[in-house]
Amino acid sequence: xxxxxxxxxxxxxxxxxxxxxAPVSDEELSRIYDLAKYTPTAMNGQPLRVIxxxxxxxxxxxxxxxxxxxxxxxxxxxxxxxxxxxxxFHVNLPTTNPQMAGVKESLDPMPEVRAxxxxxxxxxxxxxxxxxxxxxxxxxxxxxxxxxxxxxxxxLADTPLRSFMVVNIGHVAEGGSFPRNPRLxxxxxxxxx
Length: 193
Ligand SMILES: Cc1cc2nc3c(=O)[nH]c(=O)nc-3n(C[C@H](O)[C@H](O)[C@H](O)COP(=O)(O)O)c2cc1C
Prior knowledge:
The longest helix is centred in the middle third of the chain and has 25 residues, at 111-135. With 193 residues, this protein is of the alpha+beta class. It has helices spanning 6-11, 26-36, 56-62, 71-76, 93-96, 103-107, 111-135, 148-155, 186-189, and strands spanning 48-53, 79-85, 139-143, 162-170. Helix 2 (26-36) packs across helix 7. It has a 4-stranded antiparallel β-sheet with strand order 1-2-4-3. The chain has a single domain (6-174), classed as 3-Layer(aba) Sandwich (NADH Oxidase). The mean pLDDT is 97. Bound molecules: flavin mononucleotide (FMN).
């Protein structure tokens, strides 16, 4: 495991679809979270929750809910992260944002607002999570092609959490990425005023 220079995380690493047999250690999983947690979020709310599926028993529970065209990708990954958002994130605000006194209490009676904030900001954290995987010299394959309700019932029952993405994590196999598709250029995506 060797850390990548910051710009190479964007330019050199890209989506992995097939992984070689190399394992990913629990220490690496811990380092992924310890980088991803610095992604900025509204009110420092940090609504992302991560379930690392790494045992073969847990993998067998997950695979039936992965879309047919995506199953082989997750099967070859030593770890699949289920990313979820927590609509109850606000209970931590007195600790994570002590400057905003009373914000937890004002969000208590607003479950729909909380779910929306949690969903938006967990997606933002997911971007940080993918880049954190790459920063540590690992490869990531994010996917939304899975049965969300099925995964939630199997792994998140009796919790308020809702999953929104799975991320295959490991070391990309030879030929396990597609050629990189073009990105929109500065002139296409940016306005200078
Ligand atoms: C939110 C999200 C959902 C995705 N869902 C899938 C998916 O279900 N199946 C799949 O094969 N690839 C999926 N991808 C992979 C994208 O197609 C890929 O990241 C994108 O084309 C950029 O490719 P590159 O990193 O090789 O440049 C997803 C990526 C993201 C970020």
